[in-house]
Amino acid sequence: ILDTLSKELNLIATKRKKLLDGYCTDIIPADAYKSKDAEFQKEEVDKKAQIKKIETSIVKESTTLEQKKKDFLTACTLQKTFSKINTEAKSKTLQDVLWNATIENQVIVSLSLNQPYKRLAEVDDLSDFVQLRRGRDSNPRDL
Questions:
Q1: Nearest-CA neighbor of 8 among 39, 35, 40?
Q2: What is the pLDDT along the chain (143 residues), one digit of tens a residue?
Q3: What residues contact 55, with CB distance under 8 A and at least 6 apart?
């Protein structure tokens, strides 16, 4: 959809350029140019608004199921991968996972976990999906 809208935006830009060329060479009268240019401008604004709406919905969707899956997989592999990444990546990872950590003599003395890691730490068995759910499912059934 985004590719289609981008192509349509490019097509509108091409049409506006041709319209301007026709106006500059006195093929198209001023009143026809102004009305058609206003029409193209409105289409362009509409297409840009649609693109922005779709991009916003993509961001919202990525913060739902796909983001939860990514967080879960990250938490599961974090211990294995942490020692293999560079210092900057370690710092970023710790900022993502930890909240309000206190460090003394290069040792973490106290810490709190950010969401969703806090919720994952509270679950006894991470393979038990029922424990990972926050509450009652909207479609209760036997798992």
A1: 40
A2: 888 999 999 999 999 999 999 999 999 999 999 999 999 999 999 999 999 988 887 766 555 666 667 777 777 777 777 778 887 887 777 777 776 677 778 777 777 776 666 666 666 655 555 555 555 556 666 65
A3: 2
Read off the amino acid at residue 60. Answer: K
- Residue bearing tokens 């919202």: 60
Whole-model pTM: value is 0.43
Q: How far is CA 139 from the centre of its chain?
A: 27
Among 92, 62, 93, residue whose Cα is nearest residue 78: 93
**Following DSSP, what letter does each residue of the chain receive, concatenated?**
-HHHHHHHHHHHHHHHHHHHHHHHTTSS-HHHHHHHHHHHHHHHHHHHHHHHHHHHHHHHHHTTHHHHHHHHHHHHHHHHHHTTS-HHHHHHHHHHHEEEEEEETTEEEEEEEPTTHHHHHH-S-TT-HHHHS-S--SS----
Dig out the tokens for 21 from the structure: 């060329």
